[in-house]
Specification:
85 residues; two-stranded antiparallel sheet; 12% strand; flat
């Protein structure tokens, strides 16, 4: 219990599962892929520390992030089907 002034709040324990971490990671990788697509197809300039990021890095970033997202999705589906049997 947490006492703040005259009010009492009950702190609930939340369990973070591997599935929720995988889902969050897939969402982050998907956002990275979308941002790399924007950089590639819309031609936006991206600057990090005063240096313009070249287009080839967006291609590489898209491939790596998409690959990681697909691998995590496959792993989570395999684990889900294994536990449901």
């Amino acid at each position: 219990m947490l006492f703040v002034g005259r009010r009492t709040f009950r702190l609930e324990r939340r369990v973070i599962t591997k599935q929720s971490v995988r889902t969050l990671a897939v969402a982050i990788f998907t956002i990275v892929v979308l941002l790399c697509f924007l950089h590639l197809f819309m031609g936006y300039e991206v600057m990090i520390g005063g240096i313009i990021v070249p287009m080839w890095s967006s291609i590489l970033g898209t491939l790596i992030a998409a690959g990681m997202a697909v691998m995590l999705l496959r792993e989570s589906r395999e684990r889900t089907t294994c536990h449901s049997k």
